[in-house]
Write a structure and sequence with these properties.
By secondary structure, this protein is mostly beta strands. The chain contains no helices and 7 strands.
Length: about 110
Amino acid sequence: MKFCPKCKNLLLPDHSKKVLKCRVCDYEESLTKNTKYVISGKINKENKEIIFVDDTKSLNLPTAEIECPKCHNTRAYWWLVQTRRADEPPTTFYRCVKCSYTWRDYR
């Protein structure tokens, strides 16, 4: 990989001119016959799909002895999230290990 000596960004090949070109400051460097480059992969900027996987069997979370409001099981996974201002305590979320019901505690 080569970088622009002016702005330090990556130089990319411009096939129409046979040069390496900076897309930020338009610096150009000629390609020699011995220059080799490989381009692999493609970035799809339009794909903004987010996939969430809910696999409770592989959760690596601590557990607590607390009663599930739905099935009354006495064990649940728990985790903390700062849902309010930083000067307030975080919210504790619980997920029942038996029925996967999720609830929160603001204490």
